[in-house]
Amino acid sequence: MAESPNVNAYAYADQPDEVGYSAASPFYANNDDSGPVSPRVQAAADDNDDGLLRSPEPQPAPPEAASRPHSAYASPAPPASLPPRPAQPQGQPLPACPPPQQQHPTLPNGLQYNPALHPPKRDLPVPDRIPGEPVLDGEKHWNLRKHLADLCGTGGTASFWVCEKSDGVRVLVLIVATGFGQEVYLIDRKDAIHQCYWLTFPHQDGPEYNHSNTVLDGEFVIDVDPETGAHIPRLLVFDLLVLDSENVMARPLEKRYGRLAKYVVEPYQKYQKTLPPDVLANQPFEVIIKKQELSYGIEAVFRDHVPKLLHGNDGLIFTSAEAPYTPGTDPKILKWKPPSENSIDFVLQLKFPPSAANEREPDFYAKPVFLLLMNHGHEGSHYYDTMEVSDETWEQWKHSGEQYDDRVVEVVWDRARDTWKFVRFRDDKFEGNFKTVVASIIRSIEHGVEAEQLVAHAGRIRRAWKARAAARAAPPPPPRDARGPPVQGQQQYHANGHNGYAQAPPQQQQGRPPAPMGGYGGGGGGGLRR
Fold this sequence. Notes:
This protein is α+β, with helices and mostly antiparallel strands. Among the domains are: about 135-335, D-amino Acid Aminotransferase, Chain A, domain 1, CATH 3.30.470; about 345-445, CATH 2.40.50.140. It has helices at about 140-150, 255-270, 275-280, 300-305, 390-400, 435-445, 450-455, 460-475, 490-495; strands spanning about 20-25, 45, 55, 135, 160-165, 170-180, 180-185, 195, 200-205, 205-210, 215-225, 230-245, 245, 285-290, 295, 315-320, 335, 345-350, 370-375, 380-390, 410-415, 420-425. The strands form 5 sheets. Strands 4, 6, 7, 8, 11, 12, 13 and 14 form an 8-stranded mixed beta sheet that branches. The chain has a 5-stranded antiparallel beta sheet with strand order 1-17-16-5-15. A hairpin with a 7-residue loop joins strand 2 and strand 3 (about 55). The radius of gyration is 29 Å and the shape is globular. It catalyses: a 5'-end diphospho-ribonucleoside in mRNA + GTP + H(+) = a 5'-end (5'-triphosphoguanosine)-ribonucleoside in mRNA + diphosphate. Keywords: GTP-binding, mRNA capping, mRNA processing, Nucleotide-binding, Nucleotidyltransferase, Nucleus, Transferase.
């Protein structure tokens, strides 16, 4: 195998905790009982306990925060019912964020700032919906979901691949064949199903055959042509769950990805070259396979992949090359973001001040308080903190006519202003991050890993990868019940048989060769060989 990492090689990373990644959830958050602490509320030490850091007592949530109807605006309770802003804690403050104008921040362990690892952020579009015609028929929607679940069978030291984390919409692709031909559906996180027309995924055996009962995992993005500025919708596929009714979720990623490339994407791309321009123009998007690197090829992702992207980038994704596909929260999928870009999803709630004319009525024209509600699972969403929104942004929202209350927002922590800052709306999600995910991201914000630190670990990851590869190439140990060579005093026993009787030679069956011996290659011409 070549020494340099490439897209078709197997990726093996060192232990995940070496570089301090935070676990990422591909679809849903897990249900742990631990809770996060806002960066605004720093833990204080208790001299009488076991030495663990304890958080200040949580502030009470607004009375109506636990359960409230969906509406265009928040309930008209007066501002007096707002929870008090958590007091600034005493003790060691959080590390100060370098000022925005500083171009070369100080890095730990004597690492030097590398501008190549920090390409300028570009304001690129993110899809606000997935293409296709929504499937609104209740019976058809239910049948498709059941069919998808039936196909997928969902009713320490590891080997990893790394790729850029695209800023798009996560979707599953369901390909089925009916009496009317092949049908392609996209399913988002909200279980909304869209049927996409003018798309064909031919079989690897030839364009006269089509794939059916096939499920892909991917990300829908919008690429921007650097010359014309045109928006080009694309589907980046990176995993295969089911291929022609064969569930491959239990297979390792390296096998699933290989089948995806050879049996799905390659025939699709060949078929695309045979289509006339008018057919291509009607297709809702283009399908390409997402590039992967060996885990120690982190620098190549920063240097080669990210600068060439035509869509937004949201960090890196490390995926176990040996693990099966796991729906929901997968601890073997690791997400990395620069500490300054670690974001959290909350549910937004607007709290308006009372009207001057009638204190019992809210003033919908005044600027509200922007509350962030954290997901507590079956307990609902409860108040966590507030978000700062500029007057200019609020004026734009107010005159847009859109509903903002009860929408999921993505926010980042602004150390300089000591507040959460709005990034975007996540209309592809129903609920915010679960409380344990929030806690994990808070730790990443406080103890973030910079790009230079990731690259500095590449050599260590590569050595561990080589060690695992060598261990796999070594011959396997003998079976536990295999007998060793006879010791002194046993030769006569084996030669003459038990109790001194000579053993008869093995009988050869008439018309057949001797039966091969089991194990690692015994027998006249048979047996297992490794």
